[in-house]
Design a protein that fits this description.
Keywords: Signal. By secondary structure, this protein is of the alpha+beta class. It has 2 domains: 181 residues, no CATH class; 178 residues, Porin (Beta Barrel). It is 17% helix and 47% strand. The strands form 2 sheets. Strands 1, 2, 3, 4, 5, 6, 7, 8, 9, 10 and 11 form an 11-stranded antiparallel beta sheet that branches. An 8-stranded antiparallel β-barrel has the order 12-15-16-17-18-19-20-21.
Length: 391
Amino acid sequence: MQSKFITLACICFTFWTSSNIFAQSNFKQGYIISLQRDTIYGLINYRTDRLNAKCCIFQKNECTESREIPPGEILGYRFTDNERYYISRSIEVEKGKQAELVFLECLIQSVNSLYFYNDDSEDGIYYMENEGKLIKLNRNNTEKEATGLYPKSMKNCLPALNYFLNGFPDLQTQFNQAPFTRNKVIEIVKAYNDKICNNPEECILFKTEEKAHNLNVAITPYGGITKYKTAKSTYAGDQINIKSSYLAGINVAFSSSRFMSSFALSIDLSISKLNVLEVEGRDNYSGTSLTGKIGIRYRYPSKIGIRPLIEAGLLSQGMFFSNDDSLQNTHYIDNQINPGAYVNAGAQIRLTRNWKHSLDLRVQCGITKDCIERETMSKIWSGYIGYSYLF
């Protein structure tokens, strides 16, 4: 009965995850700028570049309802913890069609500001603001198609940027030789603004902080105890007792800071000992168990120092180095690999302010084919504590 319950729990968790994954909120501290230039602080949903350009999802605090704010209703919005800044501007999203209001990401705010719009193309679109007018820096699609395959250089991808660099031979040399990367575009435009400003120290009002990637990796070594509970207490006519054992393992969790950060892909490998004792005999059967798991983890985005979590997925358990110390020829432990499923729940306790270091507490129950009698299912109960480091 309990085995069926665990299976049902895993199925329900997977269904719930799939049905809610696109509705997942990823609220972070930030503020919106009203049309009257008032700054209103609160929480903003941090999503992909494409979704951030369409609308701002804002709530004043965790207890209030969120609302969608389209471009034009506010001047812009900004995240305070990762320095992402978006402003409302009108651009021609599709060539030949009417201009649309979108939120452009501000990469540099200066005399000539630099903006970025993700149009679902490989490179996105870069704009430079000159005397209040937005100038598109990218090569037109028709020109790109005519030239066919071309090197990914700044010179080929952003030809309009060269116009601004006239009179600065050192920057033009960099421009002509530089590879086309987002960081390199920001670097050259910043250097250009520094040169045209009378006071370079006050020239750059804002510059986005670029991360190498948006992938978070958390590595958690852990230790605890585990109990293997078989479907019945007798095998081959002998009453047996299975002792609790140590549990040691390592978990690696992958999540995105840009989208659905509460969800993570969890990969786990652990080792434990299985000891089978005859209650009325001298025989002892033992084996080393190696278990691999893959699952989906949901961590509640609590603002306090404790975050509840739940995880479910599939497991595969194999018995290795089995020992049979009996005086008979009966072998209880099966060395084959046994598939199964698991579900666990627990909490992460913050050790540092930015969650780089935390404690991981878990209670877990899994079901798998009985390694002693494969026709039945057995449960694996475990509890452990780990130390998590976030890269």
